[in-house]
Design goal:
The protein is an alpha+beta fold. Helices cover 51% and strands 16% of the residues. The model has no long low-confidence stretch (mean pLDDT 86).
Length: 282
Amino acid sequence: MTQVNPIITTPEEQFVVGESDLAFFSGYACRIDGGAILFCRSGAAEVSVNQYQGHVCRNTLVLLLPGSILMLTDRTEDFRVTFCAFSRDLFAEAAFRLEPSFFHALRERPITSPPHRIVEGAAIWFQMAAYTYRDRNNVFRNTIIKNRLQNLLLESFDKMQRFAARRPRTPETTTRQTELFHRFVTLVQAHSSQEREVSFYADKLCISTRYLSTIVRTVARSSAKEFIDRSVVLEIKMMLQSTDLSVQEIAYRLRFPDQSYLGRFFKKHTGESPTEYRNMRK
């Protein structure tokens, strides 16, 4: 049976609430146009959100920003989540009060295991969201869910700030370096499909390539080039799985010199050719 993406919205349906085993994303990298909040109710899975990988089990929360690439591996048979998916526009309206640091934190750690008190609050929030979703005759339906989404984001932001305030500072990174790293991550997400050289991002940040490499090595424990390449590989995987584009067309769209160059690049990082990867996933 063909699996269907459960966390997709339409212009007519700005948000969707429900339960799913997320089988659609099992071994399948897919970009989320809008965003979603996932609350694991049973089972477990290894989940990738962009370059972040984490273990999801009962009472784990996953917050997907619009444009995130989601994939599941090693999903158990009893894995189930309650979800609320929302359109990009609805999210933008709900999140306009939030500071950039909140989005930086979410990109860095989209998967969390909150304390029991927060879990209870999340369960109640999803019950209220489901009630609003079912109340289709309510003329204020989208406004109500937008306000509830905003409340959840503000609560999450508050807890993140309080946790960060209690966490001991690491002497290796300064506030300036952390901010530059966050800006680098945002730039990579926006431009890695077209730009793969470290110098491009260093120029955008008005710093030297050497300093950028030092920052990324300190914060992410990898080189800047490795970080960029992982993002490109993720983009290729998503296009191989989610589109019918030929490898040659993908190479053209991602500005590789030719199909052979992309093939060598992909095999170097994954151990498979693009065709092998596509056929195995199908």
